[in-house]
Amino acid sequence: MAKLSKRLKAAEAPKYSTRQHNRCQICGRPHAYIRKYGICRLCFRELAYKGEIPGVRKASW
């Protein structure tokens, strides 16, 4: 979990658009961010496993 201060700071609109930093909407993690879903890989994996992301399922071949 990210610090609350970092999550709140990321939620604010930055002074300049280049200062924006992507963070997971669920846990606030700054790394391994998936733009299409707006969450990190860990939260994505957990939600996909539960079947809460439409159109995504575990691969098996």
Number of strands: 2
Could you give a short account of the major beta sheet? Answer: 2 strands, antiparallel
Provide the residue-averaged pLDDT. Answer: 86
The proportion of residues forming helix, as a percent range, comes to 25-40%
Helix count, DSSP H or I runs of 4 or more residues: 2
* Quaternary organisation: single chain
- Quick one: overall form? elongated
Structural class: mainly alpha
Unreliably modeled segments: none
- What is the N-to-C order of secondary-structure elements (H for helix, E for strand)? HEEH
Strand content of the residues, in percent? 5-15%
User: How far apart are the termini?
Assistant: 34 Å
- With strands numbered from the N-terminus, the spatial order across the biggest sheet is 1-2
Radius of gyration: 14 Å
How does this structure look, described?
- Strands 1-2 form a two-stranded antiparallel ribbon.
- It is elongated, with a radius of gyration of 14 Å.
- The protein is mainly alpha-helical.
- It contains 2 helices and 2 strands, in the order H-E-E-H.
- The protein is 30% helix and 7% strand.
- The relative contact order is 0.15.
- The mean pLDDT is 86.
- The N and C termini lie far apart (34 Å).
